[in-house]
Design brief:
233 residues, alpha+beta, 4-stranded antiparallel beta sheet, elongated, 7 helices
Length: 233
Amino acid sequence: MRVLGNIYFVSNLYIRKMEITKSDIQKLIEVKKEDTIKNHFLYSTTKQYKSFGEIKENTIKVWQRTNMTGIYYPIFTFEFNSENKLIKTSEKLNPIAKFSQLLFPLFYFFPLLLKAFTDFEFKRSLACISAFLFLTFVCYLVSNKIFRYEKKEQLNEFYKTLGIKTEDKQEREWSKSKTLTRLFTYPFCFALILLTIFLIIPEGGFLIAILILGIIGTYLYSDLKIIFKEKKP
């Protein structure tokens, strides 16, 4: 959290400077739970949409899943000084979601690695390994997009609940980092689509083909939706 004059800047939100206390943030919590891997696992496997939180002497952690986030919900940490006034806000992805970023591609795209090493032919093996690494990267991008979008939306809702006025700070979708990422991912997406159509499907890998095209489609759709949404007046 940064302070600019009489304005706070928190997670792409401008908040007019006012005193936010520990008791204010406690109002956001519907169910008290400890921030543990076990509790996040249980929370991720149920369809509960209440806000959970952990209250300690100088910090409060709050998390809430939605239909949009699924298991990729953020954990917000609110830190307070000795007078119980808010001094810092931060957020992170919950531990179950972090674990799934590794487990999901490994589980679903393992057949690609298996094909690369059991039926070894240099070009085909290179293509399968490249596809696996790229799909892992795309899965990470998609989950990260969900996380970044939802953390801003949830934080906005939290402050609305507390009666605090906020203003969105729009992120530039054509920043250098995002442009470089698209220059890498878009050509690779189209190359992988061609690889799926002309190599994987003819060899009977229909399930892998559906997963690959589904993930690529999800990434391209969500990214293009954000780009065109930014262009609207």
